[in-house]
Amino acid sequence: MQEIICPKEGNTYSVAEVEEVDTEEIEGVTGNNRLLFKPEFIPFYLAEVKKYNFSNTEGLVYGFIRFYLRNNPNGKFYFTNDQLAHMLDVSPSTISNSIAKICNCGEFKVTYKIKTNGGTYRLLENSESDSEKLKSETLRKLRANNNKIKENNINTPKGAVGDKPQEYGNSDITKLQKFLKEHYPIPLEGITDRRRLHNIIQVLTRRKNQDEWMGDTWKANLNTFMSLYLKDTKEEYYARSVYKLLDKIKLWREYRGKLN
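Below the sequence we write its predicted structure tokens.
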């Protein structure tokens, strides 16, 4: 059995619970004790460094933790302050302070554990997977902008719904382009291809005497498709180009509102 403890103020801890010793975790700690190395590179996530006001050292520690957790099958980070200090050529106390600030950003959760044979070790994990975080943020933006999508910025003018959408230079294309730039979770290749964006509007527009299940306007159908697609698709399978996104929308229409 082992006690799981949580940090309180200063260097004191309180016992949160008691659980069976996780052999794999102990082996992970032992294995990492041998990994006193300096990696060839550490990702530096500039957007997050600015967002969380990290120093350069904090940014490097954050980048290493994030990169390691993303590529580690068990999703757990065991590295000690001494190991990280050796990698970055700083003091262990600098690492300790950096990790405290990094964990306050909410992306990682930290647990301290006491082993039955004495000693403690720190365990870091993702608060949620990157893909789940991306989906939740994107869906939140979609919900927040739902009324704008339906009523304001990408409203289809009267008479535009039908078999013949407007010409390639019309303002709807610009509005669709702007919407995808601002709300699609990754940059889309071909976002400047107005002809292809026009094709997306065509596919999202209900055909005469067909597609009775679809909404009355292409903007309503775009919102319905995006909500379903981003919720049910893993991040690594997102369409990376306007052309691929068009194919996904075509399948969604042919399957009558389903992705496959």
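The CA atoms of residues 213 and 256 lie 7 Å apart.
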